[in-house]
Design goal:
Largest sheet: 3 strands, antiparallel
Low-confidence stretches: none
Mean pLDDT: 91
Shape: elongated
Structural class: alpha+beta
Strand content: 25-35%
Radius of gyration: 19 Å
Number of helices: 3
């Protein structure tokens, strides 16, 4: 069995809290509360339909997706996909540059 040379990893809320803990010297509980507060504010902003601009990181915007015809991949049956909202992310120029180095 071949070994994976590069594993994809997700950063968890707990890891973000640990980074805040190490950077600011706060307790892990306080750091977790800060991270939770930030995400709650971000979620509230997006749910209310507003855009969220994080300078030097990017912008999160809420977009409306129109209803469209789709297909059930399991059965091949044609169906209508209802209209919905989705969050779109546009990275800042600096983040794009770092990604494309």
């Amino acid at each position: 069995m071949a070994k994976k040379t590069e594993e994809k990893k997700n950063v968890t809320r707990k890891e973000l809290a640990l980074a805040v803990n190490e950077k600011l010297g706060l307790s892990q509980r306080e750091a977790a509360d800060i991270v939770d507060g930030i995400f709650a504010t971000m979620k509230g902003t997006l749910v209310s339909g507003e855009s969220l601009k994080l300078v030097q990181f990017g912008t999160l915007t809420v977009r409306d997706k129109a209803p469209r015809r789709g297909r059930n991949p399991r059965t091949g049956e044609s169906m209508m996909i209802t209209k919905r909202k989705m969050v779109s992310f546009r990275p800042s120029k600096r983040v794009r540059e770092l990604l494309n180095q």
